[in-house]
Every structure is written in structure tokens, then in C-alpha cells.
Design a protein that fits this description.
The protein is mainly alpha-helical. It is built from 17 helices and eleven strands. It is 52% helix and 9% strand.
Length: 467
């Protein structure tokens, strides 16, 4: 054992390399000198300056008194400067030696209200799903036309199709419901001769309901081969000869067009349906003769209608992505967008263009042509405005015309109107002058889809949080 190790604490590590530089070594040597000068030699430095100046100043400067005054002031100034420099160096050294406090933790952002609304809507739909064992059709799992109906609810084609689409939008967050159950129910609700109809339409298939169901089934992953037969039946029956009332209805044509674009994007009937929609546009002298749509595609067209114009824009935008578009179709679609952007009313969260609308689609009954089947259609206008303005083509038109601020103002107003209409993620429709409210499945689907689409569109990730 060497002498250096005698008496060493056995728990203290032995330093075998060269000593590490301390805080006053290396680059800190000038600071150490100044610190010594200020701490120990500031008086001496001042006195040295005094002696030096007193000896070198000439006597002709003003006598011995002047020499004393100049040397004294210079010496005192030197001593004071040395003391201040040393104090500054000590303060900096103390600051450098002080441990750096860790930055305060960044609080996780609180969730906004939209996730709460989506969760509440999902829980409500799961709680109110209807499960019925039908002796003829088997087990049915789905929803009726409206939530909270007083009579025992039975799944319907329309309610279950919209419910399936809501669940697909929300992501089917748990196993209480599965898409397979809802898909099987829609197939079991198919009419004996094929196709689907609304509850008020009886046992005759209607193209708007059939296209709605086919679109939902396609979204759920049902193959095109399985849907092909129903697509053929739908298009074969949706002609002017077989369904004149449907072919002249803007609502029916746009619904069929959107559904078939999803279920059968290569369907031969799609170009003809789009052409009929474009040909049914009308000119509005109240808005610079821009083309828009009324509730009918044939005379009498009816007055210009915001919900029908928005429905046409949405259908034409979707068709353009699937089929492409020529100049005439593009011009009609862009005119519809410009018509929506020319809303003269304000404020836009409660403007006239956002008022809900209703119409009737009257068809002669095949079993008794003297009587009519009446389909009551209601339009949640604000959601259609949101969907139309959120289309890529709408923003392109707004930018071309220098109306991006107007586009944003109208979109924000429509979204605000949609948001204001819900309670815990469920939307309600009043029954005329009555205070009683209904909660149609289609309205909740459209409300949730509009809010979700707007949230996705406006999402801007923080670049500082991405890898």
C-alpha cells in the first residue's frame, strides 16, 4: 500500500487521472485575477495609481495641492472600478454555479367540447338501439326513424342505415354494437322483391331509400358484387317512365346519385343522373343570374332553395371526384357555389339561407293510381351548407373570386347554427306549432357529420410537437 493510500476513506473514490478543471481554471483565469484584485487589492491598486500620478505630474500643473487632488481622484476611481469589477465577476460566478431549475411541465391540452358531444351521441345510440326477434326476418338490430319514440320501436331501413353510418363515423368505439349486426339487419329488411323503402312508403321499393341503404352497406365493406343486383334493380326502376315524380325531384336525384357513387362508382346510370341534375339548374335574377336549384328539376322549378342548391353542389362535387367533369358540369357546380357565397343576409349563424325546409314527394300508387303516396322530406339546411362549403371545389371558387373571407364567414355561421341545434349530440325537429320534438336519426347523422367534417378540415397540428 502506498503512502498516498494510508488513512484514505475506503468509500472515497481514488482519482487516477489528472485533476478536472475547477470553475476558476482555464477560461476563468482572467475572472480569478479580477476577483483577487477587487477582493484584496482594490485599495492597493488605488494607492499605487495615486503614488504614480503624484510622482509624474509636473509641478507646473498648479502646485502641490493640484497634484494631490488629481492623484487622489484617480486613485479613488481606480479602487472603485476594481471593486465593482470584482463584484460583477462574483455575481456571475454565483449565477453560473446555481443549479438550473427544470422548465415547468407543459400541461396537457384539455379536450374540447366536440369529443364530449361525440361520446354522448354514441352512448345515446347504444342505449336506444332496438333488438327485435322477427318471426319472418329473424333478429333485427337497429333503430327506428326517430330516437325516443313512445311506441315500441322496430328497426327501419332508414333509421338503421343512418345509424350504421353514424357508428362508422364515430369508429364503433366498443363491442356493444358491431357493423355486422347492422349490416345483417339491413339485408333482412330488404323487401321481398328487392330494394328498400321508408316506413311510410309501404312495400314498394323506392330509389332514394335503396340508394341510401346501398351507400351505407358499401361504407361498411359489403362487396360490389353482392350489391350489384340491387344496384341494377334500383337504376332500372329509376326512370322517367317508372318514377317520374322521383326523377323531377332534386332531393331524390341527388340522394340516388350520392348513394350510387358510393355503392357502384362504375354504374352506367350515373352520367345520365348527373346530366339531369345539371339541366335542372335555374337562374336567379336576385343573385346576378347565378345558377342554383329549386326543389324540382322540371317546371315549375320552385323558388331558389339553399338546401337543394347545397345538395346539388355536394352531389356534383362527389361525382367530379369519381367521374371527372366537363366544362359545362364544372360551370354549373361553380355557379351553385357562388350562389351560396352571395347570401345577402347577416348575421350568418341565423340568416335566411340557413332556415330549415320541408317538402313533399308525391307519387301515384301502383296498386291504385288515383291515390298518391306522400313522402314528407325535411331538410337540415345548415348541415348541407357546411358540407357544400367544405368541398374542395367550393374553396377553389372562393379563392379565385377573392371571396375567401366571405367563404369563411358563411362556413363559421353555418357551423355555429349546426352546433346550436344539438343537445348531448342529438338533434331535434319541432312538430309545427307543437312543443313536442322528434329526434330523427337522419338529423343526428347530418349534424354529427357536419361537425366532424369541419373539425377535420380546420385541424392544424402544432409543428413543435411533431417529430
Amino acid at each position: 500500500m502506498s503512502q498516498q493510500q494510508v488513512g484514505r476513506d475506503p468509500l472515497r473514490p481514488v482519482r487516477t487521472g489528472p485533476p478536472s478543471p475547477g470553475p476558476d481554471d482555464g477560461a476563468s483565469r482572467p475572472g480569478r485575477f479580477v476577483g483577487w484584485l477587487g477582493g484584496l487589492g482594490c485599495v492597493a491598486a488605488g494607492y499605487g495609481v495615486f503614488q504614480f500620478l503624484f510622482q509624474v505630474l509636473p509641478g507646473s500643473l498648479g502646485g502641490e495641492a493640484a497634484q494631490y487632488l488629481i492623484a487622489s481622484v484617480s486613485g479613488f476611481g481606480t479602487a472603485l472600478a476594481a471593486w465593482l469589477a470584482a463584484a460583477l465577476v462574483r455575481a456571475r460566478a454565483a449565477e453560473a454555479a446555481r443549479p438550473t431549475a427544470p422548465p415547468p411541465p407543459v400541461a396537457a391540452p384539455a379536450p374540447g367540447p366536440l369529443p364530449q358531444v361525440l361520446t354522448a351521441a354514441y352512448d345515446t345510440l347504444v342505449e336506444q338501439v332496438s333488438v327485435v326477434d322477427d318471426p319472418d326476418r329473424g333478429r333485427l338490430t337497429g333503430w327506428s326513424h326517430s330516437l325516443g319514440e313512445s311506441t315500441p320501436s322496430r328497426p327501419t331501413s332508414v333509421g338503421t342505415a343512418y345509424g350504421l353510418q353514424i357508428m362508422l363515423d364515430l369508429g364503433m368505439t366498443d363491442g356493444r354494437l358491431t357493423p355486422g349486426e347492422l349490416v345483417d339487419t339491413l339485408w333482412r329488411l330488404r323487401l321481398p322483391g328487392g330494394g328498400w323503402s321508408a316506413r311510410s312508403q309501404g312495400a314498394e321499393p323506392r330509389p332514394e331509400v335503396t340508394a341510401l341503404v346501398l351507400g351505407a352497406l358499401a361504407r361498411a365493406g359489403v362487396s360490389g358484387e353482392r350489391l350489384a343486383q340491387e344496384v341494377d334493380r334500383c337504376t332500372a326502376a329509376f326512370t322517367r317512365e317508372h318514377d317520374h315524380a322521383g326523377r323531377e325531384s332534386t332531393h331524390v336525384v341527388t340522394t340516388v346519385l350520392r348513394g350510387l357513387l358510393r355503392a357502384a362508382p362504375h354504374c352506367a346510370a350515373l352520367p345520365a343522373l348527373r346530366e339531369a341534375l345539371v339541366d335542372g339548374a335555374i337562374s336567379d335574377p336576385g343573385r346576378d343570374h347565378l345558377r342554383c336549384w329549386g326543389y324540382r328539376l322540371d317546371p315549375p322549378y320552385g323558388p331558389p332553395s339553399p338546401p337543394h342548391t347545397a345538395q346539388a353542389v355536394v352531389a356534383l362535387e362527389r361525382a367530379a371526384r369519381v367521374l371527372g367533369e366537363n366544362a359545362a358540369v364544372r360551370a354549373a357546380r361553380e355557379d351553385g357555389v357562388r350562389w351560396l357565397l352571395s347570401c345577402p343576409d347577416a348575421p350568418h349563424h341565423a340568416c335566411l339561407d340557413l332556415e330549415n325546409a320541408r317538402e313533399e314527394v308525391r307519387r301515384p300508387r301502383t296498386d291504385d293510381p288515383a291515390r298518391h303516396e306522400v313522402l314528407n322530406v325535411r331538410h337540415f339546411t345548415a348541415t348541407w351548407i357546411v358540407r357544400a362549403l367544405l368541398s374542395r371545389g367550393a374553396l377553389e371558387v372562393a379563392r379565385q373570386d377573392g371571396l375567401e373571407d366571405t367563404w369563411r364567414e358563411l362556413l363559421d355561421g353555418a357551423v355555429a347554427a349546426v352546433w346550436a341545434g344539438q343537445r348531448d349530440g342529438i338533434w331535434s325537429w319541432g312538430r309545427g306549432d307543437s312543443t313536442e320534438l322528434r329526434h330523427p336519426m337522419w338529423m343526428t347523422y347530418q349534424g354529427l357529420a357536419a361537425l366532424r367534417g369541419h373539425a377535420v378540415w380546420t385541424y392544424r397540428p402544432d409543428d413543435t410537437t411533431t417529430a
